[in-house]
Amino acid sequence: MTENSPAALAAPYDALLLCSFGGPNGPDDVLPFLRNVTVGKNIPEDRLVEVGEHYGHFGGKSPINEQNLDLLQALQAELGRRGIELPVVWGNRNWHPYTVDTLRDAVAFGAKRVLTIVTSAYASYSGSRQYREHLAAAVAELGDAAPEIDIVRPFFNDPGFVMANADAIAEAAAQLDGGLAGAHIVYVTHSIPDTMQDASAETGPGYREQHEDVLATINAFLTGDVAPTFESSLAYCSRSGDPRTPWLEPDVNDHLEELAKQGVRKVVIAPIGFISDHMEVAFDLDTEALETAEEHGIQAVRADTVGVRDKFVAGLVDLIVERAARERGEEATPVTVGEFPALPDVAPPGSCRMRHGEVTGIPVLAGAED
Ligand SMILES: CC1=C(CCC(=O)O)c2cc3nc(cc4[nH]c(cc5[nH]c(cc1n2)c(C)c5CCC(=O)O)c(CCC(=O)O)c4C)C(CCC(=O)O)=C3C
Ligand SMILES: [Fe+2]
């Protein structure tokens, strides 16, 4: 492969790691998986039982693993279409295949520099720093055999991600009586504790503000030339933890109830906080929130998550090409939509801590430890 051939566009990287959360594949996996997720976290036992039941409704199997395999294939296909040589592998934080095992295999097949895409679009402790801690732990475990790892910047304001969401919302709205005109778009994301939100805002736009930015871009796009009159708001799902600890609100169910009181009769539920239909979407939105809407006389449709939509996948491949170029010392201007600049490749000191003001000293990759 010559220096300027498409095959070399991902150099110096020789593998791409899709790094995700993981989820159970059957009933026997559910409890050990939940224990992995909640180790060291202050999650009450009854919340764990409740979440275990959510998985139980789906045969103890989360859809997340198959969705990650679909994304892996879609990324590999798009790289192939562009003639880029870069094998894609998949590893998780909380369930098999674990990242450390995937990396060990990748090294055995000759990988030395691995670029990582984390499957959370927004930067916060849960979606960003916790993955950087996890990757640092995997590298420590592999010792001398560890590859060198870089991480693609959080992609909430990537045009591919945002426009794929906008398309999905437009398609969902078309299913409502009379379409988007007169509808209310309830954008939904995962709730996080207020202290995690505050910590996320220490060195850049906070978690909530990142979502508000995406929401504004999508609203402007949907308004377009036709300018239908619609309202929108941001709500949260899947809060856990100690009930006395404040988390981001309103909860999507409370919010739908409130909207019904205000006379709202049709809603698009737009899960912009999630890239695929994993358990939070399948249970908290498709089971609970749609039921809440119906109970309150609201016609509601749930927009698709971006999944393997072409624009989203192409956007991720653009991010890979952009990052690789920068690593080769070439100029590569990040492309974004909305009011915020691209987040940096390497997280600044103090970014995305678990709690505002807390320094744990836990080693991280692609960022400072404080
Ligand atoms: C911001 C965020 C994302 C990013 C959005 C994204 O990446 O899409 C995300 C993703 C995910 N969270 C997931 C599952 C769980 N999260 C939990 C707990 C928690 N999540 C939190 C936040 C987030 N979580 C927080 C602050 C907690 C409290 C404990 C802690 O501080 O960590 C618990 C414990 C039980 C409970 O408390 O609910 C479970 C089982 C799954 C897999 C789903 C599947 O199996 O299909 C995925 C993709
Ligand atoms: Fe979670």
UniProtKB/TrEMBL annotation:
- GO CC annotations on file: cytoplasm
**Gene3D superfamilies, A to Z:** 3.40.50.1400
Top EC class of this enzyme: lyase
Q: What is its main location?
A: cytoplasm
Pathway involvement of the protein, from the record: Porphyrin-containing compound metabolism; protoheme biosynthesis
Q: What is this protein called?
A: Coproporphyrin III ferrochelatase
Positions bound to Fe(2+): H190, E280
* E.C. code: 4.99.1.9
- Bilayer-spanning residue ranges: none
> Its gene?
cpfC
The yes or no answer to whether the keyword Iron is present is yes
The family database entries (InterPro entries) matched by this protein are listed as:
Ferrochelatase, Ferrochelatase_C, Ferrochelatase_N
Q: Which GO terms describe its biological process?
A: heme biosynthetic process
Arranged from A to Z, the UniProt key words for this protein are: Cytoplasm, Heme biosynthesis, Iron, Lyase, Metal-binding, Porphyrin biosynthesis
Give me the reactions it catalyses: Fe-coproporphyrin III + 2 H(+) = coproporphyrin III + Fe(2+)
